[in-house]
């Protein structure tokens, strides 16, 4: 469904993303992990059209979409969430979700009906309450719902579990799986390895803007290059030595 081919993004002398190639099969949940500052969110901004790559191309369902604006990509079926959740505080939960639904439903009644259906899917109740009154977990679900209301084929989730406690994470994992089962392909940035191991069939690892590993969650967790990227120089050797000595 998604093919990123040799994509690079430069900001002056800084190379935030360097020659990254990856693919996301239709019907999959694919993970994108890496330490802070690795270039993960920058890659999302390139895929979703908020910025243009300095080099390389992005293809969606075989079509080159490089540089197309996000509103056109939304119509094509690409939606994303954001790390920093910013609901329309003056609107209700239902009205926030309807903002996304208006992309495909021009009438208010249709858009609100779609909002109610999506809210039920992600576990949001009390649709008339102000969005500003939601907890962190509620706002995360609202962000997810607003993106889903655009009826995407490809959903880019940017740390949708960040800031949640273990029980909240446990509760939202089945929601993400149900979204995929309903026919939405997912590419997710995530630091919560419990969720990555549970949800993702395939994982790509970025470090310093470069793709350093790819494979199943179990394969990448055991990859020395990944251990070094997260824990620092020499960490893989120290862990191996400790395991041997233990």
From TrEMBL:
Keyword Transport belongs to the record = yes
One GO molecular function term of this record is: L-valine transmembrane transporter activity
Record's SUPFAM superfamilies? P-loop containing nucleoside triphosphate hydrolases
Taking every annotated instance into account, which residue ranges of this chain make up the domain ABC transporter? 2-233
Q: Name one GO biological process term.
A: L-isoleucine import across plasma membrane
- Domain of life per record: Bacteria
What is a single Pfam family found in this protein's UniProt entry? ABC_tran
- Keywords for this entry? ATP-binding, Nucleotide-binding, Transport
Gene3D superfamilies per record: P-loop containing nucleotide triphosphate hydrolases
The question of whether Membrane is a record keyword is answered with no
This entry carries the following GO cellular component terms, namely: plasma membrane
Protein name, per record: Amino acid/amide ABC transporter ATP-binding protein 1 (HAAT family)
